[in-house]
Every structure is written in structure tokens, then in C-alpha cells.
């Protein structure tokens, strides 16, 4: 049973960037974004789940290799996986545009990717790719063809799948008895500390804590043996998981360390989540005030990084094209489209469009360091940024 602690109002589907022609405010395109806590499993999830076929299709715009930070982070990870686990067969669930698997031998990799535009990209490069949703049927199909796999990896994908029991059951079924599952997703502890409520949108059905992951995988005879904190997506955790029967791998202290950190913060208690809900409401009030004050002073504000996260913020705080003139973004699939729900145009990134503004709202706050580094000149010339993380402020 899920207990509601946060209501982010009516929201459009976040990664469905609108073209001019279907840019209407059709109420059918909205859903109510409420978030709840399961007192038994300690899992945080959206109360209304959108069918995955509505979200992950041939138009999915998110590309993992869009940022240098991500490319470097995946390259480093591939070296670590090869050194530590020496997989003869490696499977990635949600292989996206192949940013990780391109660091592996073609004959040692299986890609699973439901979005056909992305699956095409890895297929074209000669990697075995299943253009399909992850479930037990697919796991059976793969087992028939390739037998079991040694390492299964999935970043920012399992939290997008509604039926987590099926997800972990299928993984447990396909994973070699000495195999390793590595998953990484935004950390709820970081989300609550940073009041980054924009981690919630239709695709992020779940936001994991280590406590919740431990509880869910337990049912499938799986257990955590290592946890690594990561800077990606505003603070993520990389979980290393094995079959409980595999005694060859020792459980590292990092597991109890992370779990006790979360317990100290109170992530096992519903009252902590209720407090978070109140902090989110305050954050909204403060952010709106910053925007209104600047607009009253006739300042030109634009957005940087047309993220799915920004979509939640814009719709929750009711920030539209009268407040933010346009967004700039380097992703070709987003350019010349509009931020869902708020009709703010997304323009191709250029220094000229950047320098036109007095203030820039950081939609991609999770890339703050990379962006600040790139925009040193804008900052030196007096340009300012607005962020809501960890609290609304002008930088
Ligand atoms: P991200 O935070 O990964 O996505 P989401 O919230 O949608 O999961 O997306 C970052 C976006 O920011 C992506 O559209 C690319 C854009 N971006 C730029 O335009 N310029 C940059 O320098 C960086 C780092 C990102």
C-alpha cells in the first residue's frame, strides 16, 4: 500500500517534446503526478503509472552520449567491469545509443532497448540488439540463444519499469550463478537532501534508496555486495548485486555504510517523506518569487538544458513562455520543439542566444560544473544563473 506524500499537480509526459502543430493544451495529455511511500518495502513510487508503450517508442529523444561527463563516466565503468568481473557475456538493459557497450567486444555483448530509434543505432554498429521491453519472456528468449550471462548492467532503466518483481525475477533467471548485476539510478537520499523533486516525472516510476533495493531483491534470492556513490543525475548509487548462494564474493562494508546513512536520515520512516513534501512546497514558493521579481525588473530569462526534470519544475511552478523566453539545448531531437505543457521553445544552443539573456535557469542543474566551465565568459561578463537545487537561488 502506497502512502501519498507529494502532489506535483497536473503534468504532461516529460520527454514528449511538442512540435508546433500539436502544441495545444489538450487535457488528455496531462496526468496527475503524485508520489507515495510503501511502508513495507520502503519503496518510493509514482501513484499513477503511465503505460511504458506511451513513453518509450521510436521518438524517444534522450541520448546518453549527449554529454562529455556521461561518455567519460561510461568509458571508465567499462574498464572497471572488464577488470573486476571479466565477463564472457555482458548484457545491458536499456542500452540507449550504445554509449557503454561501444567499449566492449561485439561478440561479448547483448543489448536490450525498447526504443526503436535507439536500438537501430547499436544494431547498425553490429551489436546483438533486442528491440524489446525487459521481461521474463525476453529473458527466456535470450537464455535459449546465449545461455546465461555473466554481467547484467542497467543504468536509469529499471526504475522506469512498472513491474519490478518481474524485472528482478527475469534477471535472477538469466544471470549465471556466479554472475553480477550492476544497476545505477538516482539516489533518493540525494534527492531528499537536495529537494530535487524534479527527479519525479512519468518515466521515473521509482526512485530507489539502498534500503528499498535490499528489500525488493531479497524476494529473488539476490543480495547487495557493494554500493558506490556517483555524481551522475544529481547524485546516484551504483548497486552491485549477486545471487545469495554465491559465497565467492564478499559483501563490502559500503553496503551497511549506505544503509545506515539512509537510516540515520530516516528513510525508513513515513514522517521523513511528509517533511520532504513540505520542503518541496516551500521550494516552489521561493523559486516563483525569484522569477517574478526578475520579470518585474524586466530581466530576460532563458533556460539551459531542456531536461525532463525541468518539465516537472515548469509545470509544478507554472513557469511559461512569458517568464522564460526559450530554452537552449545541444540535443538535435529537442531543438525547435516546445517544452511540454508550457509552450517554451527549445532552440539550438548558441553563444549568441546565451548572451542575449541576463539570467539563465539551469534545467540541467546536474551538469552544473560542466556548464559553468563552458560558460566562463558569460559568467565573467556578469551573466547569472537561477537554480532550485538545493534551494532556489541566483548564482
Ligand atoms: P539530463 O539531465 O541528462 O536529462 P533528463 O532530466 O531529461 O533525464 O539532460 C541534460 C540535457 O541538457 C540534455 O538535453 C542536453 C542538455 N545539455 C546542453 O544542452 N548543454 C550542455 O552543456 C549539457 C551538459 C547538457
Global geometry: globular
For the residues shown, what is the average pLDDT?
A: 94
SS strand fraction: 15-25%
Measured between the Cα atoms of the first and last residue, the distance is 41 Å
User: Percent of residues in helical segments?
Assistant: 25-40%
Work out the count of structural domains: 2
Strand order of the largest sheet: 6-5-4-7-8-11-10
Under the CATH scheme, which class of the largest domain?
Alpha Beta
> Remind me, CATH topology of the largest domain?
Rossmann fold
What does this structure look like?
With 395 residues, the chain is of the alpha/beta class. The chain folds into two domains: 2-37 and 271-394, NAD(P)-binding Rossmann-like Domain (Rossmann fold); 43-267, Rossmann fold (3-Layer(aba) Sandwich). It has 13 helices and 18 strands. The protein has helices at 52-55, 68-85, 116-124, 136-146, 164-174, 188-193, 210-218, 253-265, 270-296, 308-317, 351-355, 368-374, 376-380; strands at 2-12, 30-38, 44-46, 90-93, 109-112, 128-130, 149-155, 175-186, 206-207, 222-230, 236-243, 301-304, 326-329, 338-339, 344-348, 359-362, 384-387, 393-394. The longest helix has 27 residues, at 270-296. The protein is globular, with a radius of gyration of 21 Å. The two termini are 41 Å apart. The model has no long low-confidence stretch (mean pLDDT 94). The structure holds thymidine-5'-diphosphate. Residues 62, 66-67, 305-309, 329-331, 334, 349, 364, 366-367, 370-371, 374 line the site of thymidine-5'-diphosphate (TYD).
Amino acid at each position: 500500500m502506497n502512502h501519498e506524500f507529494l502532489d506535483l499537480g497536473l503534468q504532461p509526459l516529460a520527454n514528449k517534446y511538442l512540435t508546433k502543430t500539436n502544441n495545444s493544451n489538450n487535457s488528455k495529455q496531462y496526468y496527475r503526478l503524485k508520489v507515495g511511500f510503501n511502508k513495507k518495502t520502503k519503496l518510493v513510487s509514482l501513484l499513477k503509472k503511465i503505460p511504458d508503450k506511451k513513453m518509450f517508442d521510436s521518438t524517444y529523444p534522450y541520448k546518453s552520449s549527449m554529454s562529455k561527463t556521461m561518455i567519460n563516466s561510461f568509458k571508465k565503468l567499462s574498464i572497471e567491469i572488464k577488470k573486476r568481473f571479466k565477463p564472457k557475456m555482458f548484457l545491458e538493459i536499456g542500452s540507449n545509443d550504445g554509449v557503454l557497450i561501444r567499449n566492449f567486444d561485439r561478440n561479448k555483448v547483448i543489448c536490450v532497448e525498447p526504443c526503436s530509434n535507439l536500438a537501430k543505432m547499436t544494431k547498425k554498429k553490429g551489436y546483438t540488439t533486442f528491440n524489446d521491453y525487459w521481461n521474463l519472456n525476453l529473458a527466456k528468449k535470450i537464455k535459449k540463444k546465449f545461455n546465461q550471462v555473466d554481467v547484467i548492467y542497467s543504468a536509469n532503466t529499471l526504475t522506469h519499469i512498472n513491474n519490478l518483481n518481474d524485472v528482478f525475477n527475469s534477471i535472477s533467471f538469466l544471470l549465471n550463478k556466479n554472475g553480477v548485476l550492476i544497476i545505477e539510478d538516482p539516489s533518493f537520499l540525494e534527492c531528499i537532501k537536495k529537494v530535487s523533486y524534479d527527479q519525479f516525472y512519468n518515466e521515473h516510476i521509482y526512485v530507489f534508496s539502498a534500503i528499498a533495493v535490499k528489500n525488493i531483491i531479497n524476494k529473488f534470492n539476490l543480495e547487495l555486495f557493494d554500493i558506490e556513490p556517483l555524481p551522475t543525475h544529481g547524485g546516484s548509487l551504483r548497486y552491485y548485486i549477486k545471487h545469495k548462494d554465491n559465497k565467492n564474493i564478499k559483501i563490502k562494508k559500503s553496503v551497511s555504510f549506505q544503509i545506515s546513512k539512509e537510516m540515520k536520515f530516516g528513510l525508513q520512516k513515513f514522517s521523513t517523506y511528509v517533511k520532504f513534501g513540505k520542503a518541496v512546497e516551500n521550494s516552489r514558493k521561493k523559486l516563483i518569487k525569484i522569477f517574478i521579481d526578475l520579470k518585474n525588473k524586466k530581466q530576460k530569462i532563458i533556460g539551459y538544458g531542456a531536461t525532463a526534470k525541468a518539465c516537472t519544475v515548469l509545470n509544478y511552478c507554472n513557469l511559461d513562455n512569458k517568464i522564460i523566453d526559450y530554452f537552449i539545448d545541444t540535443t538535435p531531437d529537442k531543438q525547435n520543439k516546445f517544452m511540454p505543457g508550457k509552450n517554451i521553445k527549445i532552440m539550438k544552443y548558441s553563444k549568441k542566444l546565451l548572451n542575449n539573456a541576463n539570467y539563465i535557469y539551469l534545467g540541467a542543474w546536474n551538469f552544473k560544473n560542466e556548464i559553468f566551465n563552458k560558460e566562463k565568459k558569460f559568467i565573467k561578463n556578469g551573466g547569472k544563473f537561477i537554480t532550485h537545487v538545493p534551494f532556489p537561488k541566483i548564482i
